[in-house]
Amino acid sequence: MSRVTKPVLVGLAAVACAMIAISAILFFHGSGEGDQDVDGAALVTLAPVHTGPIDDVVLATGAVQADPGGQTTVAAPRAVIVRAVYVRPGEPVVKGQPLVRIGDLPTTALAFAQAKNALNAAQRDLTRIQTLAAQHLVGSDQVSLAERNLADAQAAWSAAKAQGAGDATVVLKAPAGGVVLTVPAVPGQRVADMAELVTLSGQTPSVAHLWVSPGDAAKLKVGDKVAMTAVFGGGAFTSTLSEVGRLVDPATKQIAVEAPLSGAGEPVGAALKARIVAGSHQGFSVPAGAVVYDETGAHLFVIAKGKASRVNVRPGPQVGDEVEVSGPIQAGQLVALTGAYQLQDGMDVRVGR
Question: Is the pLDDT of residue 86 over 80?
């Protein structure tokens, strides 16, 4: 029986080897997912090298800021104690809305009581002097002096009353609608005359306060176009520079520039990223996908007569799907787009649709 089965086994082994060889050929041929023909030509799509004006872009970051010219400060009318605070930063307020409740300092209350007592005493003294004058017991000069004393006491009392002294508490209200920017006041705090209690943004539009490097700031001027986007899910909007600073911030080592945000609707403090167009120049651009990066640097593959030629380039800013490139290229040349990463210098290519 062994003489019968041995040829069969040999035949089966040969068939199995053949099937394995065929499977290997099919696998390695199909592993390129149709990117190469049997002769090794790579499948690519092409894109032309464009030439034309390219924006000189300065990138910046910053935040929405209330226009300093439209801010309102609610200050203490005199030295007081802060009794209560009704608002917090970021809160919108309307005209007449309570902000802070204040009360007299003990010394202020004492001074007001003394002014009131002085007024009452001056009134009584004048009445007494007038009675004596009617009896010809004092002269007219004493009457004039008592009248002057009463006038001075009335003036001192009226001034203290106009500032709210003598009231147990006074509620300071928003002079206009806006957004609360800062609240330095703290309940229980003693503050001096004209101390800042609350700062409100006005009804004027906010501004974009942006930071750029000193080198970039030198390229900018008032009127340059700015495209901005809120970093955390806000909108996109455009403006123009209204101010270009010339002072380097000692903390950030950068220079501030500003652009108005009329109608943007972003909250004060919202983070922004911006592209500022500082001018333009003539240059070349290609689709971003055509630029290949490896350990040797950035390069393109120019396709001509079915061959791929590697060209080293220096990429610049990307605008939309196009990226600026500089190097030994010419307008109108065709470069590999899809399939560019599989190419090598001098490789045969075939063009797909």
Answer: yes
